[in-house]
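Worked example (supplementary).
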Amino acid sequence: MEPPLAETTADAGLRPGEIGVLARDVPVATLFLTFAKISARSWGGGSGTIYTMNQELVRRGWITPGQFALDFGLSRLVPGINLIAIAVMTGYRLGGLLGALAATAGFMLPASAITVILTIGFSQFTTHPIGNAAVKGVVPVTAALTFALAADNAIGVLPRRERRTMALMLLYALAAFAASAIVHLSVVFVIVGGGLVGAFLFRPEKEEVGP
Amino acid sequence: MTIPEILLVFLKASFLSSGGLQALPILQDELIVQRNVLDYGAFATAVAIGRITPGPNGLFVITIGYYLAGLAGAIAGIVALSIPPFLAIGLVHAHRRIAHRRWVAGLTRGIGASSVGLLAALGYSFTAPLAAQPASLVILAVALGILLVTKSDALPLLVGGAAAGVALYLIGVPLA
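After joint prediction of all chains, the assembly is encoded as:
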């Protein structure tokens, strides 16, 4: 599958580090197939999936990494599984309501089918020591994928030309890490807090067009 | 349990949780404590399967559905997981309408910065249980190095991790 060129540029003149949607009116079938491919290829219970989604959507020229970071944050404010919410939002931004349905269906189908097959075969697999050893080797890779995505999103979100704002945002990201990893504060507080702090302290210096 | 009952329990868990694993305590209360239709062993297996499967996180609900009512229960799980995320469309509209204002651009950046910290925290939560196992940390470091330098796909690294786990087991250094 060749990545289709963005036919209409939704936010013209975006540089890679900025937040925005680059394509519009992506065909429903393309959305379905792209999300089905992400769904079938990203093993590891979700972390590999976030990484693969970001990589695939950015590589196709559909969104910027900054947009992905924003959608990831917004998705955590929606009930249910946030990765599905990212598929809904991306599908909706690129292809309207039908696009959202196609992206979600594509995203759910292969993974759900594989889950059912695994459920049927699982007891045989993990009671076997080799299967068990394979599962344990996957866990550290899953952690690495999550850290790599955090680094990629940091590059996508931080405004390099606004030094003071960049330093403040980095500080907030560190605080968010501590609040979630150490204090176990609810992610909703962290995200809403980030939005509130950002509305006052992270404003762009010049007038800028958002997504 | 009938399929509509299963669907309702799953929808409740899906609407009242965010991010996948939060549905777990709700389902545990409904299915183990209240109705006594599953045991903790089944839940543990479901979560383990959910950590391997491709696609979105939280697919352990599909496995639980399968344990409750076979394929129809699994489909109830798929349906229940797919509905609540559509509320995100409202959020996209609300955000788009006001996105051009400077304070909203700042708010957007704040949400992005939160995401960076939350993702790192997620990585940390996967890493902390591995701390006692140097071999696991080596796999993590090698995988992270490859990812940062080459922007590799996830799949070859996941296969590599599984292969490393098997190899270590065969030479007598099993991962914890």
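Two points are worth noting when inspecting this output. The radius of gyration of chain A is 19 Å. The mean pLDDT of chain A is 85.
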